[in-house]
Amino acid sequence: MTTTPEAPSLLDLEQRLALVACGENSRPGKTRACPPCRTKGNALLRIASTGAADALAAAICGTRDRGITTCAPCVAKAVRMIRIYNGEAA
Question: I need a labelling partner for 44 at 20 to 30 A (CA). Which of 13, 67, 76, 90 fits?
Fold first, then answer.
């Protein structure tokens, strides 16, 4: 008999996306996002659910003005977050 892995709860997913936004790879062993990134977690989750990588990158990067482009690391984080949201290999 095989079992399927249980899907993460929305809170777990929100925390995971906040950790990616915070730069999970910036410090070995980092397991929690900083408080400012944790407060963005719900918004990041909602944007990730739309699949809009550009909007997600802007939310991560903090660029609110239309004339400012997001940085490459934040675009990469956004793409990774959408993959995580969709349940793809992280």
Answer: 67
Determine the Cα–Cα distance for residues 36 and 18; give it in Å rounded to an integer.
9
23: left (phi over 0), alpha (psi -120 to 50) or beta: left
Distance CA 2, CA 80 (A): 28
The Cβ-side half-sphere exposure at 14, using a 13 Å CA radius, reads 10
- Is the CB of residue 47 less than 8 Å from the CB of residue 17? no
Q: Quick one: pLDDT at residue 75?
A: 93
